[in-house]
Amino acid sequence: MPRESFLAGAFVLTVAAFITKVLGAVYRIPLYPIIGDQGFGLFQMAYPIYGMVLVLSTSGINVAISKLVAERLAKGDARGASEAFKSSLFLLGSSGLVFSILLFAGARFIAESVTRDARATLCIAAISPAVLFVSVMSAYRGLFQGIRRMTPSAVSQIIEQFVRVVTMLVLAVVLIPRGVEYAAAGATFGAVTGAVGGLIYLLWVYRRDDVPRLLGYSQSRISIPTMAAVLRIAIPVSMASGVLGLVQIVDMGIVPWRLQAMGLATRVATAQYGEMSGAALPLVNMPTILTAALQVSLVPAIAADIALRDSSHMVSRIRTSLRLTFQVMLPAAVGLFILADPISRLLFGDPDIAISLSALAACTVFMGLQQTTSGILQGMGQLRLPVKNLLWGVFWKLLLTTWLTGTIGIKGACYGTVAAFLVAGMLNLWSLMQRFGGILDVKEAILLPAISCVAMVLVVKGVYGLVLEASGHSSLATVAAILFGAVGYLLALAVGGGLRKEDVEMVPKVGPTIARYMRKIGLLR
What we know:
With 525 residues, the protein is mainly alpha-helical. The protein has three domains: 6-222, no CATH class; 235-440, no CATH class; 442-525, no CATH class. The protein is built from 24 helices and no strands. It has helices spanning 6-26, 28-58, 61-74, 78-105, 107-115, 121-127, 129-146, 150-175, 180-188, 190-208, 211-215, 224-261, 266-285, 289-308, 311-338, 340-348, 353-360, 363-379, 384-408, 410-436, 442-471, 474-495, 501-505, 511-520. Helix 1 runs antiparallel to helix 14 (289-308), helix 4 packs across helix 12 and helix 5 (107-115) crosses helix 6 (121-127). The longest helix is centred in the middle third of the chain and has 38 residues, at 224-261. The chain is globular. It starts with 5 loop residues before the first helix and ends in a 5-residue tail after the last helix.
């Protein structure tokens, strides 16, 4: 069965995640005028509950499937890999069915006691079947990730989001004459049709490529010991997701309180918290699409290397992933910092967001580092270590956020978040360096990107000033500065020898051709 390199897989997942996020942002523009603020409020009430139930039913299991399948296939145990998939599919299907029924049956109770609006009952009931379909889809995604074919997972994400968006807009228009709660429920039902669409695609690829025969699916069986092995992997991974949720809870509980303790009015404190959590943090998170994809791709790749005892190959993967993490996250952080004000004006029309954005910019680097190193450690079987290190990060965030927010305002809360991921990411990196020694090439991963960032800053400042002076439009100047800055950074990195042939070749279809041309003109080594 053809497999993708972990770099190619990460690239495909990155593109899919970007398209999915764009679709997820765009649908709000036409949906809001259809269902209005009340409908949108009901729509938004259902998703946090759905997300919580989904974490309980699926979180961590797809990572467990990919790890076990990769390990067993590396040892030539196709039947064992199929057993891991079949047992996990039974586990996910069963839990998904139970949670779907419970969510549907308890929709009215949840609406009245949690959201405090009985009209949310329809939305919660409408989204409940999605838990089952997403749970089953997670099993197939885990399988394809385990056999190191990320394209089916990536395409299924795009199909899921596209079908979801189309369904929510169509049903919202059709049902709005019956009332805003029906229109909101119709929009919420898009999660169900989206999951069905993504699952149908994965089942088609599964049959088209004859995966059952290649894995010996008919000879395998559901195994209780295998399900126990899946849970031993899944539970620590789920705990890591829970710890990340703690970061949001810490902010929600402490930041407005400490801002008010400084003397800010409740309205102002809430607004500043919203600027940080609702605008600045999502922007800081955007570049980590790459490292999130790397994390998914690294788990089965590292697990296979461990199973084969191929330490040299594993170390090479670790070095490459760390180098790419810094080479992408450093310029992203610098760009967000120097363009914090114009980006805030361009996207939100609110320059006040720049206060939080500039303070959070460095977090991009450490979030990316935490994700990449967590994927490496999970692939190695060190499942509890990333959780423990994240807890240390949350501990320092709790202390610093409480102290600094009451001292210097909203920037203090931002610095607390930076500290959380700095501690977690560096502890993960330290654990890897203790085991493998010099796995971080300081010159390629830090010095060359830092020098290239200096060139990028000069380009960004120059282009922004020139375009602003020529056009008088800050938005146009911002977009031009971002585009030219990215090109300037890549050229500086290539001239300095920081780009490698395999980095460019990972781009599907056109990558090898671009790499050959760049080598010809001396930009690649």
